[in-house]
Amino acid sequence: MEENNVISMPRIGDPAPEFTAETTQGTIHFPNDYKGSWVILFSHPADFTPVCTTEFMTFATMEEKFAKANCKLVGLSVDSLYSHIAWLRTIKEKIEFKGMKDVEVKFPLIEDITMTVAKKYGMIQPGESSTKAVRAVFFIDPKGTIRTIIYYPLSLGRNFDELYRVLIALQTADAFSVATPADWRPGDDVIVPPAGSCGVAKERMEGKENIKCYDWFFCTKELSEKEINQKIFK
Question: 142 vs 5, 41, 57, 70, CA distance in Å?
Answer without folding.
Answer: 33, 13, 25, 9
